[in-house]
Amino acid sequence: MITIEHLSKRFHAGTADEKVAVDDVSLHLEQGEFVTVIGSNGAGKSTLLNCIAGVCEADAGRIILDGTDITGMPEYRRSRWIGRVFQDPHMGTAYDMTIEENLAIAYSKNKPLSLSRGIRRQEREFFRERLAVLGLGLEDRLQDKVGLLSGGQRQALTLLMATIVRPKLLLLDEHTAALDPVTAAKVLQLTTEIVAESKLSTFMVTHNLQDALTAGTRTIMMDRGRIILDLKGPQRESMSVEELIALFAEKSGTKLRTDRMLLQ
Amino acid sequence: MSVAALLGALELGLIYAVMALGVFISFRTLNTPDLTVDGSFVLGAAVAAVLISEGGNPYLAMLAAFAAGLLAGCVTALLNTRLGIQPLLAGILVMLALYSVNLRVMDGRANIPLIDKPSLYRLFSGVLPEGTDTLACAFLVIVLIVFLLYLFLQTRLGFALRATGDNEVMVRACGIDSNKMKLLGLALSNGLVAASGSMIAQYQSYADVGMGLGMVVIGLASVIIGEVVFGTRPLWRRLAAVVLGSVLYRVVIAVALDLGMPATDLKLISAVIVTVALSAGGVRKMLARQAQRLPGK
Question: Which of A71, B81, B170, B210 is the most buried (most CB within 10 A)?
């Protein structure tokens, strides 16, 4: 589904602050593969996702999504095929607009922006159905402003917006990290359900090693801009969090550390 | 205060409300204060005045003014999105450039009189009693514009425009070019401002190259007064509030003038009104913080 070839990205090139964020990364995802991405802070996980989404431009390498080279394509154009949920629950929605207006914007992803009515009656019914699936009672609050929602509700809504037009690729950048544990678990559960239902190819960056192993079908570990571990199949299924930490230490020569790494 | 003065304030309020709706689009919908307004208002007046003084149709002149305003807004938007100039500075640059452009449009004259020329306010003359026909025209225009704007903001395109001011990241993540939305918003905004300029020129029977000074502040004052007094929800009410805010502003000014305030103090008063309105939130926070701190000490 997506092929990344020798992707590199450095920040502050040519200055004393130069930092290699992504270093010659190559990766291929099959249709329907759900990859969890882990690694220390500054390992390049978010930068990798941002390069795929077009938020930042890669210095070298190619990104091919379903046969189309999207390497130099502007962010908004790639978004037609890529759904995104961000770490910050404020990033994915327009707070001063209603739930249904937000969904309508996401739903018109592949249609030209026209002077046709913003929300049609059948669309409203469709939004209501989809919201009901989230199980948060949002289906009765279509005309509430998103600014009134909690962080978890917003992330669930953003997830729905990112997938309401089936994307070729779903990018989740620590989308549960800003939530309390119970809400985070709920949003993750919704995520796995939605991904499974539509068989979406997905990248999910997470700090939670347990989530990284239980959710998805494949786990990659990044360190200093490189992929140092790529787990799938039986090896991944039998892996415990402790073994994963040990494996990281072995591969990278350092201890796995993040500000919120969960070891429970 | 005389009835005539009140009627005059009402007329001016409705005509300036067209400009205030333009400011509403940039300031509230796109979330950028756009200073192009001071220049595009005069541009509209100048274009209409030149056309009308040459014998042109006043309605077509207003449309031409609208189109000229669209262009001015596009220039500001492109300076911002293509050349990366901050929105505020882009607006100032275009405002400054427009001063020269406006003088060129007016063929080097600082003032174009329109006395005894046809005007759009004559639509009902002879039909309605003397003194109310101008008001009726101004009312008709503003109702039409509010109605069209209300419809537009509820289309898919209107949603995208509103979301751009709210959250650009989300807009791009939804496959929409946020730069195009800024172009559209600033164009529409300045188009309305210029249309309002053309209406004022016809109302006062002249266009003057200095008539746009402080226009953006008056627009902001109208938007904010409207929000405070008439509320912001739902959408139709929000738009109506801008119009009512503009009218209220004019009435307050008329009363102040009636009480003997020199007309030359008008700009100072406008600036003070906007300062108070914009700082209200910050002052409230500051007071709340101090109230929290005091008992502890």
Answer: B170
The mean per-residue pLDDT over the stretch B169-195 comes to 97
pLDDT at A191 over 50: yes
Q: Residue A261: which pLDDT band, with cuts at 50, 70 and 90?
A: low
Instruction: Identify whether B116 is part of a domain.
Output: yes
Per-residue pLDDT tens digits for B220-235: 999 998 998 888 888 8
Q: Do A94 and B169 touch (CB under 8 A)?
A: no
Show which of residues 17-36 on chain A sit within 8 Å of chain B, judged by CB atoms.
Answer: none
ipTM: 0.90
Hey, how many other C-beta atoms are within 10 angstroms of the C-beta on A263?
10
* Binary contact (A91, B170; C-beta < 8 A): yes
pLDDT of residue A257: 62
Range of the domain at B127: 3-212
Q: Which residues contact A264 (CB under 8 A, 6 or more apart)?
A: A210
Contact criterion met (CB < 8 Å) for B156 and A75: no
What Rg, from alpha-carbon coordinates, does chain A have? 19
Paired with A208 in beta bridges are A262
- pLDDT band of B132, cuts 50, 70, 90: confident
A168 secondary structure, DSSP code? S
Report the alpha-carbon distance of residue A56 to residue A68 in Å, rounded: 18
Whether B91 is covered by a domain: the verdict is yes
pLDDT tens string A24-40: 999 999 999 999 999 98
Q: Is the pLDDT of residue B126 over 90?
A: no
Instruction: Report CB contact under 8 Å: A118, B158.
Output: yes
- Do residues A191 and A23 lie in contact, with contact meaning Cβ atoms separated by under 8 Å? no
For the record, the structure tokens of A136 come out as 């948060």
Catalogue all structural domains in chain A, each as residue range(s) with its CATH number.
Answer: 2-81+167-252 (3.40.50.300)
Count of domains observed in chain B:
1
Residues in A touching B162 (Cβ below 8 Å): 94, 96-97, 101
For residue B148, give how far its alpha carbon lies from the nearest alpha carbon of chain A (Å).
11
**B154: chain A residues, CB-CB within 8 Å:** 117-118
Question: Is the Cβ–Cβ distance between B48 and B201 less than 8 Å?
Answer: yes
Does the distance separating the beta carbons of A116 and B156 come in below 8 Å?
yes
Residue A19's beta-bridge partner residues?
A11
